[in-house]
Design brief:
The protein is α/β, with parallel strands linked by helices. The protein contains 14 helices and 24 strands. Strand 12, helix 8 and strand 13 (242-245) form a beta-alpha-beta unit.
C-alpha cells in the first residue's frame, strides 16, 4: 500500500474531518494494539490509533507488573519463616509497612506505564482519545466524526468480570483494577475466583498479613487440569489461607461489613472482597453487529487465530477482546499478526506458539503444550517427580510440589506438562522449547543437567517416562558410531 500522510483539518468549531481514506485504524492501545502499531508503522504512516480511557497497557497499569511487584514484597516478608532452619535469628521482630509496600507498587507501576506511553506520545495527532464505534466495514466513528479506512484492527482489550448484584457494594468490592490503588490493606478479605490471578493475589495478600478466605466455584484452580497436580496445589495453599474449591460464593451485607456465603461453609464476615472471576471483552457499543457477520452467544465474531481476520472482512481482532487466551505474549503475537495482515492485500497465515501459562505463586504453577485435560482418555505415558526429597530444593527450603510430563507411548515425543513446583517458570520454558522442536524423552535426557539444580527434578520425571518406553538405548548418553569417537565421524 502507498504510504500517505495523515492530516486532520480543523473546522471553524474546532471539530476535525479526514482528508482521505486511511490505510489502517487501530482501536485500542493495549499490548495487542501496540504490537499491531509496530508492524503498521513499518509499512505505512497513513493510520490512526484510537484509545478509550487511560493510555498504557493492562499489563503495565493493572495486570502483570503491579501484581508481580506486590507478590515480590509478599514473598520477601514470608521467607522469614524459613530463617530459623537457616540459623538466622530475630525473624519474629520483623514488621511490615503495608503503606510503603503499596507506594512501591504504584511507583514501579507508574514507571512501567511511562515506558508504554513513550510509543503513543510520539504519534501526535495520529493518537486519538475517544470511544470508537464501528459504523460498518471500513467505517469508524470517534468523537462525533466518521473516519474511513481500508483495514481496521480491533484491540479493545477486556475488563474484570463483576456480577451485577455485587456492584452495589461499591468500594468494598475490589478487582485488580482497584486493588493496587489502595493506600493500605484491610485485615479480612475474601478472594472470589481462583484462576491464575485469584491464586496469585490470595497467596500474596495472605503473606502480607491479611486474613484471607478464598473460594473457587470450580474444583480445579489456577488453570490446572491434572487432578494430581491440582490436589498438590490446593493442599499446599491450604497451609497458608482458608481455601474452598468447588464452592460457589455469594455476598450479602451485615451492617457495614460483607458476608460471604457458600454451600457447606458457614457465613464469613470480611472487610472487602477481591473479585477474580476472569475478564470479559470490551465490546459494549462497539458496533460489531454492523459488520454483517454472525456473532456468537458472547457477541463475538468468528476470528481466524492464524490470520486474526474476522470472516473474510478487512477487519482484524487481536488480544483479550477475542476471548481466547488472556496472556500478554499471546496478545502481542495476535497484534503482530493483525498489524502485518492489515497492511497486506491477502492475509498471511502464521503458526502459533506452543501454549504456555505460568502462575507466579509459591510453588509456581505452569501448563505447557497439551494440558492433561486435552489428553485424558488418550493413550499417553505420564512421568512424575515430587520435590520433597530433591536435593537443591531441600537446600533452599523449597522442597514441595509436583511435576507431571505427558508423552507419546511409542516414540516418547513430549506432548505437554503440568506442574506445581519450584522454578516452574524456568522448567516450563525449557519444556516449551522441547515440545516446539518435537523432542523426545531421550532427546532431552541427552542434554546436560548440572548438579545441583532444580532441573534435576525434571530429569527424574524424564527418567520415569523413559522406563515406560519400549526397550532401546538404556543410557542417557547418545551412542557413538564406527570409531566410537563422535568427533571423528
Amino acid at each position: 500500500m502507498t504510504a500517505k500522510d495523515f492530516r486532520l483539518n480543523a473546522s471553524a468549531d474546532g471539530a476535525t474531518a479526514m482528508d482521505e481514506i486511511l490505510d489502517v485504524i487501530i482501536i485500542g492501545a493495549g499490548s495487542a494494539g501496540l504490537a499491531a502499531l509496530r508492524e503498521v508503522e513499518k509499512r505505512t504512516c497513513n493510520f490512526v490509533l484510537i484509545n478509550d480511557g487511560q493510555w498504557g497497557t493492562v499489563c503495565a497499569r493493572v495486570g502483570c507488573m503491579p501484581s508481580k511487584t506486590l507478590i515480590e514484597a509478599a514473598n520477601a516478608f514470608h521467607h522469614r519463616h524459613t530463617f530459623p532452619e537457616f540459623g538466622i535469628r530475630g525473624a519474629e521482630h520483623l514488621t511490615l509497612d503495608i503503606a510503603a509496600v503499596m507506594r512501591r507498587v504504584r511507583r514501579l507501576r507508574d514507571s512501567f506505564v511511562a515506558g508504554t506511553l513513550k510509543t503513543t506520545d510520539a504519534l501526535g495527532d495520529r493518537a486519538i482519545s475517544g470511544r470508537a464505534r464501528l459504523l460498518g466495514v471500513g467505517r469508524v466513528e470517534v468523537n462525533g466524526r466518521e473516519l474511513r479506512s481500508r483495514s481496521i484492527i480491533i484491540a479493545t482489550g477486556s475488563r474484570p468480570v463483576i456480577p451485577a448484584p455485587w456492584r452495589a457494594f461499591s468500594k468494598q468490592v475490589l478487582t485488580t483494577d482497584t486493588l493496587f490503588e489502595q493506600i493500605t490493606l484491610p485485615s479480612r478479605m475474601a478472594v472470589i475466583g481462583l484462576g491464575p490471578v485469584g491464586v496469585e493475589m490470595a497467596q500474596a495478600l495472605s503473606r502480607l498479613g491479611v486474613n484471607v478466605v478464598a473460594f473457587s466455584e470450580q474444583a480445579a484452580i489456577a488453570g490446572l487440569s491434572d487432578p494430581q497436580v491440582n490436589a498438590v496445589a490446593i493442599e499446599l495453599l491450604k497451609h497458608e489461607f482458608s481455601l474452598h474449591s468447588g464452592e460457589k460464593a455469594d455476598l450479602d451485607t451485615f451492617g457495614s461489613e460483607l458476608r460471604v456465603r457458600a454451600a457447606g461453609t458457614e457465613e464469613i464476615v470480611v472487610d472487602s472482597i477481591l473479585v477474580a472471576l476472569g475478564r470479559q471483552p470490551n465490546i459494549d457499543n462497539l458496533g460489531l453487529e454492523t459488520l454483517g457477520i454472525g456473532l456468537n452467544e458472547h457477541g463475538l465474531p468468528p476470528v481466524d487465530p492464524h490470520t486474526m481476520q474476522i470472516g473474510d472482512l478487512p477487519i482484524f481482532m487481536a488480544g483479550d477482546v477475542d476471548g481466547c487466551k488472556p496472556l500478554l505474549h499471546e496478545a502481542a503475537d495476535e497484534g503482530h499478526i493483525a498489524g502485518i495482515n492489515a497492511t497486506r492485500t491477502m492475509p498471511f497465515c502464521f503458526a502459533r506458539r506452543v501454549p504456555l501459562a505460568i502462575v507466579f505463586s509459591e510453588p509456581e504453577m505452569a501448563t505447557v503444550g497439551s494440558p492433561f485435560q486435552s489428553l485424558n482418555g488418550k493413550n499417553i505415558l505420564v512421568g512424575e517427580v515430587r520435590f520433597e526429597h530433591q536435593s537443591r530444593a531441600r537446600a533452599g527450603q523449597r522442597n514441595q510440589g509436583i511435576l507431571r510430563l505427558y508423552a507419546e507411548p511409542e516414540c516418547g515425543r513430549l506432548l505437554g506438562a503440568e506442574m506445581c513446583a519450584p522454578a516452574a517458570e524456568h522448567m516450563a520454558h525449557l519444556l516449551a522449547l522441547a515440545i516446539e522442536r518435537s523432542l523426545t524423552v531421550q532427546d532431552l535426557l541427552r542434554l546436560p543437567f548440572y548438579h545441583p539444580v532444580l532441573e534435576e527434578g525434571l530429569r527424574t520425571a524424564l527418567r520415569d517416562l523413559a522406563a515406560q518406553l519400549p526397550a532401546g538405548n538404556e543410557s542417557d548418553l547418545g551412542s557413538c558410531s564406527a570409531f566410537n569417537v563422535e568427533a571423528l565421524d
